[in-house]
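User: Sequence recovery, please. Input:
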C-alpha cells in the first residue's frame, strides 16, 4: 500500500491477508499522485521479478488508486505515470483502476488508463467498493492464470 500526500510513503509492503494490518489513512497536504503511482509500479515490477525467479505463476496484478484530489506535482510527473501505466497495460502487466471520491479530478484520472475509465465513488460507499473488490478477486482466483474474467458491475458503489 502506497500513500501519497506531500511525499510518498510505502505504508505496507506486499503481505498475505493474515499478515496485514489495515492502516488508518488521512487526507492531508499536497497530492504527489504521479510519484505514488510510479512507486507502486516499481514495487509491483520487483515483486513479479521475485515470482519469476522462483517459478511462481501469478495472476495479472491490480493497482487501485483512490484519491480525493488532483495532483500537485509538475505535469511531467503525471505524464510519466500515465505512460508507465499504459505501457504496463499494453503488455498485460497490470490492471489499473482509478477511483475518485468527492473532490477528485475525474478528467485527469481519465488520462491515466486506456483500458478503463475511472469510477467516482458514490458518497462514502467504501464498504460496497471493498465488497466488490472481494467478489472480483474471488472470481479471478477461481479462474486459470491468463483467463479473461468478467467482473461484477460496480453499480452499487461507483459511477462513470
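Assistant: Recovered sequence (160 residues):
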Amino acid at each position: 500500500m502506497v500513500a501519497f500526500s506531500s511525499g510518498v510513503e510505502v505504508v505496507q509492503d506486499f503481505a498475505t491477508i493474515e499478515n496485514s494490518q489495515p492502516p488508518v489513512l488521512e487526507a492531508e497536504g499536497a497530492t504527489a499522485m504521479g510519484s505514488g503511482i510510479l512507486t507502486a509500479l516499481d514495487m509491483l515490477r520487483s515483486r513479479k521479478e521475485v515470482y519469476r525467479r522462483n517459478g511462481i505463476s501469478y495472476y495479472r496484478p491490480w493497482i487501485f488508486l483512490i484519491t480525493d484530489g488532483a495532483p500537485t506535482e509538475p505535469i511531467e510527473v503525471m505524464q510519466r505515470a500515465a505512460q508507465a501505466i499504459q505501457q504496463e497495460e499494453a503488455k498485460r502487466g497490470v490492471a489499473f483502476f482509478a477511483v475518485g471520491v468527492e473532490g477528485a479530478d475525474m478528467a485527469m484520472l481519465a488520462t491515466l488508463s486506456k483500458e478503463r475509465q475511472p469510477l467516482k465513488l458514490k458518497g462514502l460507499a467504501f464498504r460496497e467498493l471493498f465488497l466488490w473488490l472481494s467478489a472480483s478477486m474471488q472470481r479471478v482466483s477461481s479462474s486459470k492464470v491468463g483467463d479473461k474474467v468478467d467482473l461484477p458491475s460496480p453499480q452499487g458503489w461507483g459511477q462513470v
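Helices lie at 33-53, 75-90, 106-109, 126-141.
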